[in-house]
Structure formats: C-alpha cells, structure tokens
C-alpha cells in the first residue's frame, strides 16, 4: 500500500509501477473533517488530496489493474498551516452519522474501496483538553462498522505511530474484527538498521496482531533508509514474522527515484509468497 496525493505534487496513479499479481492499495491523503480554513465540521469530511487524483483517474487505474483498491485516509497531520487533531465531538452519534454520510458520498463519487485512519494528534496545544480516547475508539470503530455493514467500503486500515499507540490500541482492542491492516508508521521510531527494525516490529506486534501489521518505509525520510529496509524484511521473515505487505510513504516523493522502493517491495513480496 502506498500513500499518494498529500504533498501538493501533481502526482498520478498511472506513473506508479503495479505488479498485477499483488493486492495494491492506494491511500489518498487526505479526507478531512474541516473547512478549507481548518475549522472542524462535526464529522463532515471533504477530500483535500491533490486535484490530479480525479474520480476518472481512480476508475481508469482500477480498470487497468483489477488488483488495485483505493482508500481515503482520514485526517493526516495538517491542512495548510493548521495542525489537525482529534477532538471529542459534543454528540458522538451525530458525528458518526455526519461522517458516514460524507464519506459515503466521497467513496461513491471517487469509486473508492475503503478508508484509512490517520489521526496523528490527540491533545490541544497546551495539553489542556486531553480527549477521552474511548470516544475516539467509539466514533471511529462504529463508523468503520457502519461503512462495512452497509457495504459502502470493504477495507479499513489504521496508521498509528509511536506517540499515538494508546488511542489506536483502544480502537483496535474493541474493533479489530473490522480492521484489515495496521500500517504502523515504523519510520517514526527512527530505527536505522535491520536488527532495530525487528525489535520494534516485535514490540508493535504485542500491541496489534502481527498478521495484520505491515512494515513501512518513508521515501527520503526518517527511520531505516535504502536497501537496509529489505534486509529488515528478510530478517523479519527469518525471525518467524510473515511479511504480509508493505506500506510506503509516499508516491509523491518516489517519482524522483523512479519508484525504486515500490518495485523492490513488490518483487520481495511476490518472491516470498508461498503458492499453496
Ligand atoms: C470516557 O468515555 C467513556 C465512554 O463514553 C466513559 O464511560 C468514561 O467515563 C469517560 N472517561 C473519562 C475520564 O471521562
Ligand atoms: C451496523 O453497524 C452499526 C454500528 O456498529 C450497528 O449499530 C448496526 O446494528 C449494524 N447493522 C447491521 C445490520 O449489522
Ligand atoms: C528471491 O528469493 C531467493 C531465495 O530466497 C533469493 O535468493 C532472492 O534474492 C530473492 N529475490 C528478491 C527480489 O528478493
């Protein structure tokens, strides 16, 4: 899976190399519960990914590659200069109902298959209003359940990182049955070598199920870099962890090196697949 469209670069789906023998998820960044100036909208989400990712281009990449799915990622770090944070809605059930209606409309107009949950901040600037993480778990868990049981979406993923593990563990603990993958942002742990990556993966697999946990890579970013990432994947395999996928952030940055990590990750995953 790969994030796309969050940085303003006029990126397109069709330039990303896709092997037809693997499940490939594009995660569009981001659908945000905010007005263009960053004011919360009580659960009414709008798409803020780059305008080159049109509904027609989603339809085209999916018809060219039937193994492609497209997901809308919820929130992300910021909208323009405004840092986004989870807020406890006054009326959680009204928030869920607004979120359901707005996401249903986005999913239908863009022909999407799912959502990714990427709330990244849970406290106000001065740490004064510390939200109740069980409200986050309730709102997001019920929203995913409803989107799935009304067959609006078929896939749901979550993207915790080291400072947000708490609220995501609450969510996962209560709603694991409707969460398909945990694309944990391993690069935020800033581990630089395969051995350290394995230790971190082992820790995160005690917090989320190992079978749903995906190793991840930030192109030109933090954490493990270069081919050491593939050493880490091999070490995970040798240490008894099935590598069931990879998350890459992001297509926006990858165009510069001709999608080296996308190509190599897909080759690695296909090579390590045991055909039963
Ligand atoms: C958090 O929310 C839950 C469910 O709404 C409630 O039972 C609990 O008392 C709340 N905790 C705090 C500290 O407000
Ligand atoms: C769908 O999920 C919602 C939220 O959890 C729940 O209230 C509702 O009963 C479910 N409906 C069906 C048909 O399972
Ligand atoms: C595929 O697997 C073989 C045997 O484990 C290994 O020698 C080779 O380097 C792998 N290729 C890739 C692209 O990972």
Topology readout:
Elements: E1 2-4, E2 24-32, E3 46-47, H1 55-64, E4 68-76, E5 78-79, E6 82-83, H2 92-110, E7 114-119, H3 133-149, E8 155-158, H4 165-175, E9 181-182, H5 194-207, E10 216-218, H6 228-238, E11 247-249, H7 251-254, H8 260-271
Parallel strand pairs: 1-2, 2-4, 4-7, 7-8, 8-9, 10-11
Antiparallel strand pairs: 2-3, 5-6
Helix pairs in contact: 2-3, 3-4, 5-6
Bound molecules: 2-acetamido-2-deoxy-beta-D-glucopyranose (3 copies).
What does this entry look like structurally?
There is one protein chain. With 276 residues, the chain is α/β, with parallel strands linked by helices. The protein has a single domain, classed as TIM Barrel, CATH 3.20.20.80. The chain contains eight helices and eleven strands. It has helices at residues 55-64, 92-110, 133-149, 165-175, 194-207, 228-238, 251-254, 260-271, and strands at 2-4, 24-32, 46-47, 68-76, 78-79, 82-83, 114-119, 155-158, 181-182, 216-218, 247-249. Strands 1, 2, 3, 4, 7, 8 and 9 form a seven-stranded mixed beta sheet that branches. The two termini are 23 Å apart. The site of one 2-acetamido-2-deoxy-beta-D-glucopyranose (NAG) has 4 residues, from α3.
């Amino acid at each position: 899976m790969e994030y796309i469209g969050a940085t303003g670069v006029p990126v397109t789906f069709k330039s990303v190399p896709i092997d037809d023998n693997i499940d490939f998820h594009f995660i569009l960044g981001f659908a945000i519960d905010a007005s263009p100036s960053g004011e919360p909208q009580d659960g009414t989400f709008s798409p803020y990914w780059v305008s080159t990712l049109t509904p027609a281009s989603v339809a085209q990449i999916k018809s060219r590659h039937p193994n492609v799915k497209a997901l809308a990622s919820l929130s992300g770090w910021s909208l323009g200069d405004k840092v986004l944070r989870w807020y406890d809605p006054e009326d959680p059930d009204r928030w869920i109902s607004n979120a359901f209606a707005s996401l249903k409309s986005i999913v239908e107009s863009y022909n999407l298959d799912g959502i990714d949950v990427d709330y990244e901040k849970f406290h106000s600037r001065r740490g004064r209003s510390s939200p109740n993480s069980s409200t986050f778990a309730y709102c997001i868990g019920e929203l995913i359940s409803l989107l799935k049981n009304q067959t609006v979406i078929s896939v749901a993923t979550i993207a915790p990182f080291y400072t947000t593990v708490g609220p995501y563990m609450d969510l996962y603990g209560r709603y694991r049955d409707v969460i398909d993958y945990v694309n944990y942002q391993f690069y935020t742990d800033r581990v630089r070598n395969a051995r350290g990556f394995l230790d971190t993966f082992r820790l995160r697999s005690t917090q989320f199920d190992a079978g749903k946990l995906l190793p991840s890579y930030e192109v030109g970013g933090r954490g493990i870099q270069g081919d050491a990432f593939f050493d880490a994947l091999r070490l995970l395999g040798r240490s008894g962890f099935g590598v069931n996928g990879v998350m890459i952030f992001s297509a926006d940055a990858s165009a510069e090196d001709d999608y080296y990590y996308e190509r190599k990750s897909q080759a690695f995953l296909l090579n390590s697949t045991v055909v039963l």
